[in-house]
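cron nightly-structures :: item 1 of 1
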Amino acid sequence: MRILKIAVLAAVVMFFFFCANTQAEMARVIVNCWTDNFTDTAQRQMGINVEVQDSTYLDPPSLVKQISVKAPDGSVLSIHPTNNWLHTNGVYYKGFYASDFKYGKIPGGTYHVTVTPFSGSAITESDSVIATFLPVASINSPVNDETVGATPTFRWTAVSGATHYRLRLWNNTRNEPVFWYYNRILTTDFNTVTMPPGALKPNCTYQLRIEARSGSQDLDLRSQSDWVTFKTGSW
């Protein structure tokens, strides 16, 4: 009986050792590309998200050896498998500027992304974009350094071509998000929105940015307003 127990224990240990040292194999790659515009046009970007999955779940950088991008103009770019890993939303992301491309201009067309894993075969997927840019919104209210109440109304200029807007709002005092990419996201079809009760805290400093988007949530035209810093009063 003791010998049997030892054998069972050894088998269990070997099983977990095998599982721990078995490299999951890549099963799927999802690519999303878009243009991103800013007030400073030198900051215009071609953003690329790459999602890598095995057969059951999204995998961290330990699965991926190399990510390369072939742009429509023949430029070959790279996304670093660890430095460009956004663990908070489970994708690889990098923004490329005009200077990263062969002719100093962000090209429209099809971007081919090849992901090479440590184990298994490489997968190439693509996404097509047009190299145009949404205009940038200007925030009208609040203005910089303004003190607002508990439920202020934010207003910004309408962006031609935008179908909806997303708010990025950060509590500087507490160093935490209110509405953010990796937290809750507040989306509106209008260029005005009133904060719900409890969203803002008293006696805090905040930063607000408006992101305009065209089409669906993952289409390829975006723009970012400048940041506006404001304060809340006591209530």
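cron nightly-structures :: done
Helices lie at 2-20.
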